[in-house]
Amino acid sequence: MLILLFPIIIGVVAYLAWKNRAVRGCRWRADSRRDKGSLRMYHCISCGAEAFTATQGPPANCKKGLGGKGL
Ligand SMILES: [Zn+2]
User: Fold this and answer.
1) pLDDT above 50: residue 70
2) C-alpha to C-alpha distance for 50 and 64, rounded to whole angstroms
3) How far is the CA of 5 from the centre of ligand 1 (A)?
């Protein structure tokens, strides 16, 4: 039974790794003209997402799935 589970676990891990890499495919560019106070504006040139961060560096993951279509 364990030998049947093994390929499934490998597949799940591979899927998660692929998904993670897809999310991290964002290429953030700082856009200082659109900063809001202490929040820095970042624009993803890969998928077009926009995000604000209060921390150092660009957002950790893509905001592509957030907002936009809902409103
Ligand atoms: Zn993106």
Assistant:
1) no
2) 8
3) 34
Q: What is the pTM of this model?
A: 0.52
Q: What is the pLDDT of residue 40?
A: 92
- Give the strand order in the sheet containing 50-53: 28-30, 40-44, 50-53
Q: Give distance in angstroms: CA of 3 to centre of ligand 1.
A: 38
| Gap from CA of 60 to ligand 1 centroid (Å) | 10
CA nearest to 43, candidates 58, 57, 28: 28
